[in-house]
Amino acid sequence: MKVSIITATYNSASTLKDTLESVQSQSYGRIEHLIIDGQSKDDTLEIVKKYPHISQCISEKDNGIYEAMNKGIQLATGDIIGILNSDDFYAGNDVLEKVVKTFIETGCDAVYGDMIYVDLEDTGKIIRLWKSGNYKPGDFKWGWMPPHPTFFVRRELYEQYGSFNLHMKNSADYELMLRFIHKNGARLAYIKEVLVKMRTGGASNNSLSARLRANREDKQAWLINGLRPFWFTPYLKPLRKITQYLIK
Q1: Which pLDDT belongs to residue 162?
Q2: pTM attached to this predicted model
């Protein structure tokens, strides 16, 4: 099975090296790494040139990270598609090997795992641990979702159910997973270990106003899919994050 990894970049020079090296060092051999750049003004593209494992890099103006991800999905030729942000990196060099093995052994539509948030400068310092847990139908109504950078999907799901909704500015990843999993019943397999490390400061979490916008979009995600959550569902999702700071 071929794995396509999509990394969207924009002025990502300060963190991109870790991302690229974590893909380059994977033990699994059939990887297509696509870089979708939004016309960076820093040294992002110069860094990309130093990594021969990269299959393709395009740099052109876009309307944000989700449009860049959609471009990558259109270009991807792998059987499995994963998204790795330009400030994230894989937790080990065997992550993709484990992901492919899980797809083969279970016949699932999508695989996900756990994720840790690390300090922006000291990536050895753990800030938050996101333990996904096994999915049960209906869990989205109780505020559940998997961490998107650990979410690997068969390309057929994108072809059948569509890609990221560009009307969403903060929660397009949540809407896509809600659509794939809760609405259309994608069959999931859970790898019970940390697959990705993410630096703190994501777009939907770096301010109160951004978090409030994301919460409003979470509600819209249900409406546009013709779904009815519990009245308290939008509040459970952020509340669940509190326990992720209780690192054991």
Answers
A1: 97
A2: 0.93
